[in-house]
Amino acid sequence: MQIPVINNSGHPLPEYQTPHAAGLDLRAHLVDGPVTLQPLERQLIPTGLSLEIPVGYEAQVRPRSGLAVKHGIGIVNSPGTIDADYRGEIRVLLVNLSNEPFVVNDGERIAQLVVAKHETIAWQPAETLSATQRGAGGYGSTGKS
Predict the structure, then answer these.
(1) Does residue 109 have a known ligand-binding role?
(2) What CATH number is given to the structural domain containing 87?
(3) How many independent structural domains does the chain possess?
(4) Tell me: the pLDDT tens digits for 15-35?
(5) Known binder of ligand: residue 25?
(6) What angle do CA 83, 84, 87 make, to 5 degrees?
(7) 65: annotated binding-site residue?
(8) In Å, what is the CA distance from 5 to each residue of 8, 12, 13, 48?
(9) Domain of residue 106, residue span
(10) What pTM was computed for the model?
């Protein structure tokens, strides 16, 4: 799939790190220098990238597992969705869930981008829904294994 991209970052375009990876790494584009995230602080980090996602697809911005496990860095609205009609710069809403400050440097890989097909639905009003074994069981209803 070809996706038009504007790269104002000066960094290489996102790329897959392994042949079967689903996500491409997004890099921070920090013109004014490093950004320090204090514990529990969140900040929008620019990437310098703008995309033209095809209709019927979305781009999902997801956390990098290495930043999460090593430094407690996540994404507040994970996964963040980039819709096909958005043309602005991709920015990543990072959060520091650790007890230590974390410095984000220009060019650092901060998130993953996954492009996925999606469906557009039409609601079908109903009075009842089909029965299942689970029924209305919600959070924790299937127990521990």
Answers:
(1) no
(2) 2.70.40.10
(3) 1
(4) 999 999 999 999 999 999 999
(5) no
(6) 90
(7) yes
(8) 10, 12, 9, 10
(9) 5-12+23-117
(10) 0.87
